[in-house]
Design goal:
Shape: globular
Mean pLDDT: 90
Largest sheet: 2 strands, antiparallel
Radius of gyration: 18 Å
Length: 187
């Protein structure tokens, strides 16, 4: 059995903004896993998402990224639960987006590309806009949240067949718990 690296970035949640939420694992546990502990790790994650800004992120931008991530998490969980979104999260996201206009400028470099974001904030604005598009459109109906209490990771499941987030650990723990419950009920 291969042991999962809990600090490895996740790129299997169905959209860049959902993968951004997964930069913190086991969010609701006593020991959350922070996958963006430094500006360098944020730069690495942005590069892997083809969102590298012209200038590398600094500590302030790392704090801004984490704050945006948690704002988006609150909105995503409310959407999945079909609950009204937290007003402070809506206001925070609206204020962030209002302060970071990032016009679309296309470039051709072997394939159609968008010009790199000028700053980390512009890269984050692209992620936030993707989240807004999904959270406010019919694609929101494909969003699910992992039932593991310590995870509650949000992921896209258009066919509606997944029960747990893409993390093998959550599915394994859930299956073991379900098996134990069935065995207890059979006794």
């Amino acid at each position: 059995m291969v042991k999962e690296d809990k600090f490895a970035f996740r790129f299997d949640c169905g959209a860049t903004w959902l993968n951004f939420l997964a930069t913190q694992g086991r969010t609701f546990s006593a020991a959350p896993v922070e996958r963006l502990p430094t500006p360098g790790r944020l730069a690495e994650w942005l590069e892997r998402c083809e969102l590298s800004p012209v200038r590398a992120p600094d500590e302030r931008e790392l704090r801004q990224a984490r704050e945006l991530r948690e704002t988006l998490r609150a909105l995503a969980l409310a959407t999945v639960a079909e609950q009204p979104p937290p007003p402070d999260a809506v206001a925070g996201l609206a204020a962030f987006l209002a302060g970071h206009d990032d016009p679309v400028r296309l470039a051709l470099d072997g394939r159609l590309r968008r010009e790199p974001p000028a700053t980390t904030a512009h890269a984050l604005a692209r992620i936030a806009r993707q989240a807004v598009d999904q959270l406010t459109g019919s694609d929101r109906l494909a969003l699910k949240s992992c039932p593991e209490d310590d995870c509650r990771g949000v992921f896209s499941d258009p066919p509606g067949r997944r029960r747990w987030c893409p993390s093998p650990a959550c599915a394994s723990r859930g299956r073991v718990r379900a098996l134990r419950a069935r065995r207890s009920a059979a006794e």
